From TrEMBL:
The chain crosses the membrane at residues 92-112, 118-140, 147-167. It comes from the Eukaryota. The keyword Transmembrane applies. Keywords: Membrane, Transmembrane, Transmembrane helix. Residues 9-158 form the DUF6594 domain. This is DUF6594 domain-containing protein.
Length: 172
């Protein structure tokens, strides 16, 4: 179990109280999110997406700050930025990306498998099952049992696709 954290960069109220920190220190400072429940699992894909979103925000704000400094604009305490809840953004974007990837794993066999011989269908299905399992393993934090269940379910779906495609059509 772990608590959610945010970057000090994501909270303009807290960040404006710390005038002694530079942008890099603000970016690296983490705050504990007490308004969120304790999470039982950490999704590695969403955590990586959150890390990249924070890095992009840091890059954008530090670039704007450097532009202000070069033009003689407002100081760091007068810079305005909006609140960004990176946890919610990464949950939504992560789920959308996961749905698109997993949807592709069901559409590709429907397009590819009907036009092949039985040996090519079986080898393509095997390749898709292994690729699907690796994708799920890399995107989600799942136990070994859950991975076996996911792979078995996907294999059952592909087997059904192959079996229905290879059945002879009744003569009319």
């Amino acid at each position: 179990m772990a608590m959610e954290t945010i970057s000090l960069l994501d909270d303009p109220t807290q960040s404006s109280m710390r005038t002694d920190l530079n942008w890099y220190e603000i970016y690296n400072t983490r705050l504990l999110r007490t308004d969120r429940d304790v999470r039982s699992r950490t999704d590695p894909f969403q955590r990586r997406l959150q890390k990249y979103l924070r890095a992009f925000r840091y890059w954008r704000l530090s670039r704007n700050h450097q532009d202000f400094r070069e033009t003689g604009g407002p100081s760091q305490t007068h810079l305005k930025w909006s609140y960004q809840d990176t946890i919610v953004i990464t949950e939504v974007v992560g789920r959308i990306i996961a749905v698109m990837i997993m949807g592709a794993f069901f559409v590709i066999p429907l397009v590819v498998l009907p036009h092949k011989s039985m040996g090519i269908q079986v080898s393509t299905a095997t390749l898709l099952i292994v690729t699907f399992s690796l994708t799920v393993t890399l995107m989600l934090k799942a136990s070994n049992l859950e991975m076996m269940v996911v792979a078995a379910a996907y294999a059952a779906v592909l087997t059904t696709f192959i079996a229905n495609m290879s059945l002879p059509t009744p003569a009319s």
